[in-house]
């Protein structure tokens, strides 16, 4: 009995040890520390992603994004110069509105934070028993620090330079586009006129052939008469040749007149087109100059409104100076964050308008307007979902690696002569979690 | 009974002895990794890249003007090459010294950690030795970085230059055929796309288009990819390498088997 118990205990111990070893190893089907594996595993992350339960959603987003991009790249019907001019005007108005909006936001925030900074500094100075005026804290506009004014000036100058570049590039593109469209319209007119002349010539040729057909037929019938003498045959042939010559002369005269008229028409069209192109280019250049001048004046006014930094007349204690510095830093940071946001919003609007502008001139292959907004939203969701999937794969892979006792797990392996392919275990793990 | 216990115990000890030393000796511990994006964020790199970007903008303007005045295709090609060379020279001038200093720092830190290979962080899912902060400290220090005393030891991790393998005539032909196929399919699917009403129908057209391209890719390129993978695995076997990664993911050390794989593919 006791011997049997001992045997059972030994068996149980052996089984327990094997089980324990298996648990410590994390699995029973791979020898993680063998010479062939050496504690190294790899994962085909791209394959794992395809087996993730959220992958169908990701694929759907990818297809929706591809559909928008595909649609944007499809060829469009060309616009007339008038349509291009109208739409360009509209886009420029939108750009101008976006700039004014950004400037207004920055201006308001500047005033607001300057007021708050001023109030906070006055309170701090008063609390220290010092007259705010003597400390250089007079009018609220004077409280706008030199640093803040410099930042605003630099931003305004930078904004103006970017605006100038953008406007010139857009207007150059508009001029090229207008020239192309007008030249194409002239070509179309010329082709239509040439086709008309060709039609007239064909009509005349047919008319002459019909008019002379009876006479020609009679002459040819005479030629078929065997009893015709050589002189008579010559006379009939001469009559036929004269008939052909008469028709040919008439046709030649018409063709010559048409060629002359076409040449003159080509010259006329070329002159008209050049004149129209020059007129359009002058108008665009005038608009460019006006837009730049308007913007330059606005920037100038903005810079003039910044005012001079305050001049303190009493020396402030070091701790108060430090406190005022901190207050300034606090409001300068807030202003900078808000200004940055306004600039970013403006830049987003500008890049969308630039894309619309490129599309207008037949150069665009990206989505614009509402489609661009939809595209951005879809891309955001796609990015979030992709990150969510990858993060979960990363977490599960690390958990599995630890559980199975691997010391290194790599992705993107080109070929394996050893190591352990952990992909299927990971896929199984991911799928079982979502069952 | 006692004898059985002792026998069992000896068996267990024997098993443990057989497994444990192998485990300690065999595991790969000489693989390091580095976060290259963190290196790229160092102020010196950011400043150099900003200067390079400004230079590129200026160069783009000059390039466009020069191309407008080009009289022939040969002229255009000459201008392109000239501007590429100018950009490359500037890149070497601005980023070259920083890159060399970083390479030296990586070599020294790797040597100190006894690493045989350092890979990019993005391919490491778990484990490995992170040497990013050590390398950043070395790069940022004012002191000169000495040349490493020894070259890296032989590594069980190999690498192949995928871009070089993708330059083979077969791959180029297959890629070109795939491109032609895409160009042929685009108008067909563009028409289906225009006819489709609603987002769901349009997305279905895109899914069909992607599947058609994917199928053609599997037909044209997959056999070549498989062939390359097999050749790579075969070379890895002959050189007793455990795994092979792409050259683009290796920062330092490792065993380059690109030429061997090319030879195997040309046989």
Give an overview in words.
- The complex is a heterodimer of chains A (435) and B (267).
- Chain A is mainly alpha-helical and 435 residues long.
- Helix content of chain A is 78%, strand content 3%.
- Chain A has ten helices and four strands, in the order αβααααααααβββα.
- Chain A has a three-stranded parallel beta sheet, covered by helices on one side.
- In chain A, helix 3 packs antiparallel against helix 9 (369-404) and helix 4 (81-127) runs antiparallel to helix 8 (318-360).
- The model of chain A is unreliable at 1-7 and 12-28 (pLDDT under 50).
- With 267 residues, chain B is of the alpha/beta class.
- In chain B, 69% of the residues lie in helices and 10% in strands.
- Chain B has helices at 2-26, 36-40, 43-68, 73-112, 132-140, 162-165, 169-195, 199-220, 222-238, 258-266; strands at 31-34, 117-120, 124-127, 129-130, 157-160, 243-246, 250-253, 255-256.
- In chain B, the strands form two sheets. In chain B, strands 4-1-2-7 form a four-stranded mixed beta sheet.
- At the A-B interface, helix 1, strand 1, helix 3, helix 9 and strand 2 of A face helix 1, strand 3, helix 7, helix 8 and helix 9 of B.
- Strand 3 (413-416) of chain A pairs antiparallel with strand 6 of chain B, so a sheet runs across the interface.
């Amino acid at each position: 009995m006791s011997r049997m118990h001992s045997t059972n205990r030994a068996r149980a111990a052996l089984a327990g040890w094997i089980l324990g070893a298996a648990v410590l190893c994390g699995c029973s089907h791979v020898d993680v520390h063998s010479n062939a594996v050496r504690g190294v595993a790899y994962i085909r992350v791209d394959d794992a992603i395809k087996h993730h339960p959220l992958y169908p959603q990701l694929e759907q987003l990818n297809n929706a994004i591809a559909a928008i991009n595909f649609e944007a790249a499809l060829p469009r019907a060309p616009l007339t110069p008038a349509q291009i001019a109208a739409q360009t005007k509209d886009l420029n108005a939108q750009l101008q509105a976006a700039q004014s909006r950004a400037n207004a936001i920055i201006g308001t925030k500047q005033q607001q934070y300057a007021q708050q900074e001023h109030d906070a500094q006055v309170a701090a100075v008063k609390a220290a028993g010092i007259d705010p005026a003597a400390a250089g804290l007079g009018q609220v506009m004077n409280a706008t620090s030199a640093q803040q004014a410099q930042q605003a000036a630099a931003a305004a100058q930078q904004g103006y330079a970017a605006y100038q570049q953008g406007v010139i590039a857009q207007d150059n593109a508009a001029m090229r586009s207008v020239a192309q469209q007008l030249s194409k319209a002239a070509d179309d007119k010329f082709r239509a006129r040439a086709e008309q002349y060709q039609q007239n010539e064909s009509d005349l040729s047919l008319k002459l052939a019909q008019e002379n057909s009876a006479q020609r037929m009679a002459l040819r019938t005479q030629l078929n008469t065997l009893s015709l003498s050589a002189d008579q045959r010559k006379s009939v042939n001469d009559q036929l040749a004269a008939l052909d010559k008469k028709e040919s002369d008439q046709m030649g005269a018409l063709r010559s007149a048409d060629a002359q008229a076409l040449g003159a028409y080509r010259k006329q069209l070329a002159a008209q087109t050049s004149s129209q192109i020059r007129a359009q280019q002058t108008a665009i250049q005038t608009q460019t100059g006006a837009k730049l001048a308007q913007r330059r004046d606005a920037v100038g006014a903005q810079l003039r409104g910044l005012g001079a930094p305050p001049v303190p007349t009493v020396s402030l204690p070091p701790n108060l100076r430090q406190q005022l510095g901190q207050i300034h830093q606090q409001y300068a940071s807030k202003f900078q964050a808000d200004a940055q946001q306004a600039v970013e919003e403006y830049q987003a609007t500008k890049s969308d308008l630039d894309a619309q502008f490129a599309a207008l001139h037949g150069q665009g292959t990206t989505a614009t307007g509402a489609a661009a907004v939809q595209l951005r939203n879809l891309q955001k969701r796609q990015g979030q979902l992709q990150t969510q999937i990858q993060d979960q794969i990363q977490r599960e892979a690390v958990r599995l690696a630890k559980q199975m006792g691997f010391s290194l797990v790599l992705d993107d392996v080109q070929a394996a002569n050893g190591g352990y392919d952990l992909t299927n275990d990971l896929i199984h793990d991911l799928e079982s979690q979502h069952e | 009974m006692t004898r059985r216990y002792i026998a069992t115990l000896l068996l267990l000890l024997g098993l443990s002895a057989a497994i444990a030393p192998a485990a300690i000796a065999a595991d790969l511990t000489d693989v390091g990794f580095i976060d290259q994006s963190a290196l790229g964020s160092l102020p010196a790199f950011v400043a150099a890249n900003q200067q390079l970007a400004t230079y590129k903008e200026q160069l783009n303007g000059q390039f466009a003007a020069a191309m407008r005045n080009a009289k022939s295709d040969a002229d255009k090609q000459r201008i392109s090459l000239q501007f590429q060379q100018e950009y490359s020279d500037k890149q070497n001038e601005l980023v070259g010294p920083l890159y060399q200093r970083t390479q030296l720092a990586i070599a020294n830190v790797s040597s100190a950690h006894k690493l045989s290979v350092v890979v990019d962080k993005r391919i490491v899912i778990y484990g490995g030795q992170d040497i990013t902060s050590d390398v950043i400290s070395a790069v940022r220090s004012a002191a000169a970085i000495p040349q490493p005393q020894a070259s890296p030891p032989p590594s069980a991790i190999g690498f192949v230059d995928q871009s070089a393998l993708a330059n083979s005539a077969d791959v180029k032909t297959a890629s070109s055929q795939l491109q032609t196929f895409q160009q042929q399919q685009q108008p067909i699917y563009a028409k289906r796309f225009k006819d489709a009403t609603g987002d769901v129908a349009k997305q279905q057209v895109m899914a069909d288009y992607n599947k058609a391209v994917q199928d053609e890719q599997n037909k044209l390129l997959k056999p070549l990819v498989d062939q390359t993978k097999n050749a790579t695995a075969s070379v890895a076997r002959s050189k007793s390498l455990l795994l092979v990664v792409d050259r683009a993911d290796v920062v330092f050390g490792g065993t380059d088997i690109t030429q061997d794989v090319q030879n195997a593919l040309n046989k």
